[in-house]
Amino acid sequence: MRPHALIFLGAPGAGKGTQAREVATHFRIPQISTGDILRDAVKKETRLGLAAKAKMEAGELVPDEVVCGIVEERVSEPDCKNGFILDGFPRTIAQAKFVDKMLEAKGHGKPLVLDIEVGEDLLLKRLTGRLTCSVCGEIYNIYFNPPKVEGICDKDGGKLVHRADDNEATIRQRLEAYHKQTEPLIQYYRGQGTLVSVDGNKDPHEVARGLLDSLSKA
Ligand code: AP5
Description:
Blueprint: E1 5-9, H1 16-27, E2 31-33, H2 34-44, H3 47-58, H4 64-75, E3 84-87, H5 93-106, E4 112-117, H6 120-128, E5 130-133, E6 139-141, E7 160-161, H7 168-182, H8 184-192, E8 195-199, H9 204-217
This protein binds BIS(adenosine)-5'-pentaphosphate (AP5).
């Protein structure tokens, strides 16, 4: 059985985006990444982008009411009616409580929460080595998953870019925010009986297999 709403939890660089893309394609459901939505708003210099920019550059979380508003609006789109993946949301207990209420109100039931666990030593290398396609969003890594041609996306020839917050100082802040504000969600969802932990230290294909296997048993 496939649950209506999936939440991907994990530290920065755990592989939430990489795995969410795989699982979204597999089930043909949308991947909703609050990080991607916010980065797009920053790029377009919208009101939301201007409000979020400084927080993102500092590696801090954007205020709860801002991200909750984004998610509520996106989940109301017709393509979400058969399910969706929340990638990088919720990240605070307040956001998790908001999700519980929102899902209940929309008749989606309890979410299934997939926590991707990765050793802290790997995270820094994954993040400093990440490159993303500026056209399709495909994720690469100069150490673990390099493109065939340097700086160019294998899929559509788009230019690969380095994320502004993937520098060592900001990564440390992001990790601190994760430990203080997001890690408590593991306990929160364990208490609800909806948490599944997946070993994210392996090769991405193996991690994807582990996730799909967990979902087939859910
Ligand atoms: P966001 O974009 O969500 O960043 P993050 O949580 O820090 O997570 P990342 O996107 O960095 O990592 P990921 O787990 O998706 O890893 P990925 O698959 O790319 O948020 C950015 C900012 O926006 C936040 O700091 C905050 O300011 C704001 N924000 C967003 N959501 C918010 C919210 N809910 N509330 C408040 N503020 C919010 O993989 C990383 C790299 O590793 C890639 O290069 C990839 O190729 C490689 N890789 C992945 N898996 C493997 C593997 N198994 N083996 C080897 N390499 C791998």
